[in-house]
Specification:
Length: 485
């Protein structure tokens, strides 16, 4: 080490140099994410590279100056690559080089699957490297959010978020933002902005950010929603958020923490499908606000050709997708992708053959086939990282089904779920549960009471309640139309 650098104070005399080189199997540098911790479990940063929460990303190589000591590291590149873990000791005597090879364990693009994260709060200037480091295909960035508006001309797709008392809605596929900066906690109704966005941008995509937000029954009743965040940012890489924040709380005695919130999300989504509303699942990590890496929660969409943004949205709209924060779950039923609608004549049961491809770092005891909200089949897993599995299913009435797998992880709800498949048998094309419809009617009634308590101005209250009253009529009519339980 040159003495003049020490004299000028440009290098700490006790600093140790540590270099990581991450390569693929052809010795090319591989962008990746690095979690580096000192002996006190303090995460380390790398100068001039994107850092968030407990990790940084690099283009395949990074040199750090650190106090001498022992460090542990975890290196990842999305769910299609192996995970590396290790320890390294560094001293101020000799630079240390850690050269590692990160192997791809599966290539979903070669199978037609392309991944996206719909809830991102990272700077636009970091997006290219972040996407490469996470092996992510699609990453629209939220640049306008309540009273903040950082929209700027960019080649990269941008999005917006309206997050207030009723919950959070994400707005995608818009060429410019709408002005939501003057909103208060309750006023105006989020539906005002939904309609404004639809008027200015007919192709807008409205994503319900989480299923347990208070205004979900209103949003569903409007018919204006395109997807819902089943893999959402309450699910972190390292832990779960234990409550529903300001959303509709679950019964924690029945669904205790830490995993209860994940099961509550699943239950609500199944209630939605049980009311005959066909809405695909989406995924979002909220990297940049909450503790996740970009792409931790992601939705894979199947395309018949190479990726392009329009085709990806189209595949998501059809429900040709699965969501995950770990396991990679590809399922076909009678050769069809999720989202397919099977039509059968009345009186003829439908037999289904399920073909499953599972790739997972995390142990799963089994997969579950959910039929009309109930576990209809379990598919035992064999413990291998790559598994080819199968099962059968029979429908004697209309309805839906999906396949999910929940990892054996005590700290966080790590799972994968396909979008639903649908069955239309005879004239009763929709399977509508009275109990699930009443679940949302009760929810609307609770929300109406909350609005009355929150907003005392009578004219504002009346305007807000107009949307909730309309939703109440929708769910009352759903109950009237119910043909199950």
């Amino acid at each position: 080490m040159p003495a003049w650098l020490l004299v000028m104070g440009l290098i700490d005399a006790d600093a140790a140099r540590l270099t990581f080189q991450i390569q693929d199997d052809e010795n090319r540098l591989l962008p990746c994410r690095i979690h580096l911790f000192d002996q006190d479990e303090k995460p380390q940063k790398a100068d001039d590279l994107p850092f968030w929460h407990d990790h940084f990303v690099c283009p395949g190589t990074v040199e750090l100056e650190l106090p001498a000591g022992r460090y542990r590291y975890e290196i990842e590149r999305g769910p299609e690559y192996e995970r590396l873990k290790g320890e390294v000791a560094v001293s101020d005597e000799l630079p240390k080089l850690v050269r590692l090879f990160l192997k791809r364990i599966v290539n979903l693009r070669s199978e037609g699957w392309y991944s996206g994260d719909l809830h991102i709060h990272r700077p636009l200037s970091q997006v290219d490297l972040l996407m490469k480091a996470e092996d992510l295909d699609f990453a629209p960035i939220i640049t306008w959010w309540n009273r903040r508006n950082h929209w700027e001309p960019s080649k990269h797709p941008q999005a917006g978020e309206d997050e207030r008392e009723g919950g959070a809605l994400l707005f995608h596929r818009m060429s410019r933002p709408i002005d939501i900066t003057k909103s208060t906690r309750e006023v105006p109704s989020p539906m005002v902005y939904v309609e404004q966005a639809r008027k200015q941008h007919p192709g807008v995509w409205a994503d319900i950010e989480k299923p347990f937000w208070w205004d979900v029954p209103v949003w569903l009743a409007s018919g204006r929603m395109q997807s819902i965040g089943v893999a959402n940012n309450h699910m972190w890489r390292s832990r779960m958020l234990p409550t529903e924040a300001w959303g509709r709380a679950r019964d924690t005695r029945r669904l205790p923490p830490p995993l209860g919130n994940g099961f509550w999300t699943q239950e609500i989504y199944y209630h939605i499908l049980n009311t005959g509303i066909r809405i695909p699942p989406s995924a979002g990590s909220a990297s940049g606000v909450l503790g996740n890496p970009l792409g931790y929660n992601r939705v894979y969409v199947h395309l018949d050709s190479a990726f392009n943004e329009s085709a990806w949205w189209g595949g998501l709209a059809r429900g040709n997708c699965f969501v995950t924060n770990g396991p990679l779950l590809r399922v076909r039923a009678n050769g069809r992708l999720p989202g397919f609608v099977f039509t059968v004549e009345a009186g003829k049961p439908l037999g289904l053959e399920l073909d499953v491809q599972l790739t997972t770092h995390d142990r799963l005891a089994n997969l579950e086939v959910i039929q009309n909200g109930i576990v209809a089949r379990t598919i035992p897993c064999n413990g291998d990282r790559d598994q080819t599995l199968s099962s059968t299913l029979t429908f004697n009435e209309s309805g839906w089904f999906l396949v999910r797998g929940i990892a054996e992880n005590e700290k966080t709800f790590r799972f994968a779920s396909t979008a639903p498949f649908y069955v239309e048998l005879g004239q009763a094309k929709l399977w509508i549960s009275k109990a699930s419809s009443r679940f949302f009617l009760n929810w609307v009634n609770e929300r109406i009471d909350r609005v009355k308590a929150n907003v005392t101005d009578q004219s504002q209250q009346a305007e807000l309640l107009r949307h909730h009253e309309r939703a109440r009529k929708f769910w009352q009519e759903r109950i009237r139309k119910a043909n199950a339980d």
